[in-house]
Amino acid sequence: MKDRRGIVIGLVAVIAAAGVAPLLSAYPLTLLTQAAIVAVLAMSLDVLLGYTGLPSLGHAAYFGVAAYAVGILATDYQRGFLVCLVAGLVLATLTAAVFGLLAIRATGTYFLMITLALGMVVWGLAFRWVSMTKGDNGIAGVPRPELGLPWSMGAPLPFFYVVLVAALVAWALLGLLVRSPFGLTLQGIRESDSRMRALGYNVWLHKYLAFVLSGAFAGFAGVFWAYYNGFVSPVDVQLVTSVETLLMVALGGPGTLAGPALGAALIVFLKNFVSVYTKRWLLILGAVYIGVILFAPRGVPGAFRRNR
Amino acid sequence: MTVEFWIVQTFNGLSYGALLFLLASGLSLIFGVMRIVNLAHGSYFLLGGYIALSVIWRTSTFPLALLAGAVAIALVGIGMERLFLRRLAGQTLGQVLMTVGFALIFQDLALLIWGGDPYSLPLPSWLQGVVTAGALRFPKYRIFIMAVAVVIGALLWLALDRTRVGAMIRAAVDDAEMAQGVGIRVPTVSLGVFALGALLAALGGGIGGGFLGVYPGLDFEILPYAFVVIIVGGLGSLPGAMVGSLLVGLLDNFGKALFPELAYFTLFAPMALILALRPTGLFGRT
Amino acid sequence: MRTRAFTVLLLATFVAPLLAPPAPAAQGAPIKIGFLAPLTGPFAQIGKDMVNGTELFLDEIKREVAGRKVELIVEDTEGQPSTALNKSRKLVEQDKVHLLTGGLLANVGYALQPFIDGAQIPATYPVIAADDITQRKPAKWIVRTGWTTSQPMHPFADWVLKNTKYKKITTIGMDYAFGYETVGGFQRVFEEGGGQIVQKIWTPLNTNDFAPFLSQIKRDSDAVLALFVGRLALQFMKQYEEAGLHGKLPLLGGGTTTDESVLPQMGDEALGTLTALHYSQAIDSPANQKFARAFEARAGKIASYYSEATYTNMRWITEAIKAVGGKAEDRAALLAALRKVDIKDTARGPLSVDAHGNPVQTIYIRKVERVGGKLQNTVITSYPAVSQFWKYKAEDYLKQPLYAREYPPCKACQ
Questions:
Q1: How many domains does chain B have?
Q2: Which residues of B touch C267 (CB under 8 A)?
Q3: Low-confidence ranges of chain B (pLDDT < 70)
C-alpha cells in the first residue's frame, strides 16, 4: 500500500517535470536537472539507511570519486561518455567495496563514525593529490557528453531529459532491488540483525553487498553531476555534502525511495530559492534540519500519513 | 635531520596534540555516555574562541576571557542537550542531523555577531616570548597549552577514577541501562557530561585563539581532527583521547615536515590502518 | 498538527518563488548588473567588502548611468564553484542581467569561464587573479578589471634585486595556484637578474600550525618571501615571530600577506614586511584619499584591495556603458567597450587594458609601518604602467608554461 503510493507520487512528479520542462526557462530547468541527479544520490543512500538501517556519513565519497573519474577522463584524456560512465561506476564500486570491508563490521553510531572517517580520506585525496585532482582549484571545463542523439547535450532541455531517463532507470533498478528477496532480507536485517542470523542468513554478506551497490548508484549520480556542472572540486566529496544527502533521505522518509528523491528535490529548490531572498539562509537551513527531526521524524510523507 | 629538528618537531607536535586533547576529550566523553556523534563540537570550539575574544577586548584579562567562553558554551551545551537532544535518545540519525542543524545556525550567528574578519586572541605579556635552551627556542604559549592540557587531563582522570560522580559516569559509559537499573540518574549524568564536553571544547577554542586564531570556518576545519583523535584512540575512552591526540599531533607535524605533499595521507592512512586492525580504536572496548 | 503545519510551511517556502514570473527585458528598463560574492562561509567578510565597494560607487553616481537606472543584483556564492555556477545561471537566465561581475577565488573563476563564454554574457573579474584567464586560456567574454597574480611580483623581484642585498631567498607559500603564480613570477625575474631561490616550501591551505614549516626554513637565506591570504597571513606572521625569525630573516611577501583586510588585526610582528601589489590603502593621491575616506565612513573599516577592486570595477563598467550610449543590450558592443576602457585617475592610479583583457597599471612596492598608531602599507616606490607580461613580449611569454608548483624549477634548491 505504502509502496504503491510512493510509486504513484514519484511517477506523477516525473511526468509533471517532463511535461512542464519545455515551458520553463533555462534556470529552473537546470535546477530540475540538478534535483534529478541528487535524487539518485539520495535514493542510493536510502538503500543503506532506509532498507538496511545503516546511516552512512561518507556517501559523498562514491559520488565524488565517480565525478572525479569523469572530470579527469573527459578533460585530460578526452574520453567519450561510455568510457567515463563505466570508469566512474567501476571506481565508485571499488571504493565502496574497500570501504565496506572496514565499515560493515560496525553498527549504529560506530558505523556513522567510520564512514565519516573514510569519507574524509577521499576528501583528503581530492584536496591534496594535486597532480591528479588539481586540488582546491578543481577540474574545470568538463564538456557535456555526445550521446549520438540528434540533440546537443549542451542545451539544457535535451540534457535534462537524458538525466531524467537516467534517474528513472536508477529508480526502477533500485525499486526492483529492494523488492527482490535480497531487498526483503535487508529489511529483515534492519529490523533484527540477530533474528536474521539465527534464520541462517549471511548478514555480513547482505550488508556488504547493499553497501557496495549503494556506492555504485551514488557513483552513477556522480557521473551525471560532473557533466551537469562541467566542474569537479573537493566540495563534491566533503562532509557537508554527505550530511546534506542524509537530510534529504530523512526529509523524504527513509525506506521509500520515492520519498528521498522528492526530499532531494525539495532541498535543492530550498537552497537555491531561499538564498536569493536572504543572506541568512544558513540559519534557515539549520532550522530546517532541526525542524525536520523534531516535527517530522518520519519525513514529510510520514507527517501527512499520520494525520489521515 | 639534526637532533634539533627532532626535538623541535616533537615539541610542536606535542603542543598541537595538547590543544586537540582539550577538544577531543569532551567529544569522546559525550560519545561514551550518550552515543551521540556531535557535529556541533567544532562550533563550541569556535564560539568559545569568539566569546573569549569579546571578553578580552573589554577587560584585557586573559584567564577571565577563557573562563567566560568556557562557561557560556557549557550553558549552550546544557540548553542543547536538555531541550533538544534528550528527546532523541537512541535515534542516531536524528541526533546527527540535529547537531548539524545547530552547527549551521552557530556558524551563521557567529558571522552575524563577530563579522567575518580573522582575529588572533591577544596574549598577556607573561605568555609572550620564548624560552631558549641553547640554540633551541620554545614559545612560552605552547608550553602553556601543554601545561593546561596536562592539568585538565589529570583532573579528568582523577575525577573519573577516584570520585563517586566519576564512577557513575564510567558506569553509564559501560552500560547505560544497567546504570539506570542500579539507581544512577543517567539523564543527569548525560547532561553533566555534555556540559563538561562543551566546556572543554570552548576552553580549547579560547586557548587555540592565541595560536590558531579565531575565524569563520574554523569550526568545520578543526572538527575532522577531533574525530580522527577519537577514532584512533577509541570512542568514549579518556586514555584513548590522550594517546590519540598526542599521536595525531605528532603525525600531523612530522607528516607535514617530512612529507609535505602527503599532508593528509600521513594522518588518514594510519587512522584507516587502525580501523582495519582494531575497529574500536586503540583503547576502545571490543 | 504541529507536524503538518511545519511541513506545509516548508513546502510553501519553496513553491511560492517558483510561481514568480521571470524578469521582463524591455528597453528603457534599468540596466541590470549581476554581482557574485561569498556572503556566507569563511570568506564572508571579504564578500562584504566587495559588495560595499560596489555599492559605494553606485551610490556616488546615484545609480544612474547614460540616462538609465542601474540595478545591482547580488548573489551569494558561498565561496563554492558549483554554487557560483548555479547563481550565475540564475542571474543570466532568470534575472536577465546585462553584465556579470564579481567572484573571489580562482576556482570560481575557472568554473564560471565556460559558462560565461557559452552564454555570451559580458563579464568582468575584479578580484579573481588566476593568470591563465587572460593568458593561455583566454576567455572571450571576460575582461579582467583587477590583476593577474604574477603581475606585481615581476617588478617586485626587479626592485629587490636593485635595492637590497638579498641574493638567496627562501619562499613559503600556500599550496595552490595563487601561491605558485606569486612565487613563480618572483622567481623568474629574480633568477634572471642574478638572484637565487634556494628553497621553496608549500603549506596546505588549511594549515593551522606553521611550526613544522617554519623550522625547515634555511637559516642562511638572505630573506624569506611569503604568500598568504586572510587568516593564514595573520597566523603566519605571529608564528614567524614566535619561531624567532622576525628581525632575523627579513620578510618579503605577495600583496595579500599584509593586505588591509587583515593588517589591522596584526601587531608589531608585521612591521618592516616588504610587499608588492597594485593597491595600497596608503597611496597618497587625491583619488585614493577620497575613496579610502568614503569607504571607511560607509563600512566602518579601512579599505582593502578587495573593496578598491570592486569600486573601480564598477567605475570601469559604467565607463563602458557610457561608451555604448547606455545600450547595454548590445552585448558585443558592451564587451568591446569594456576592452577599451582607459581611466587616468582611479584610486589605484591610471588604468588601461592590454590586448588580452588585463589591466596595465601601477604596481606599488610597500612596507609595513606604524603611522599614527596604526599599521599601514607605506608606498616606497611605484612602477608605472606594468603589464601582465612585464617586459617580455606577449608571444614569448605565452610560450612559457604557466607558473606552477615545479615551474620555474628550483635549480638552487638543496
A1: 1
A2: 122
A3: 1, 263, 285-286
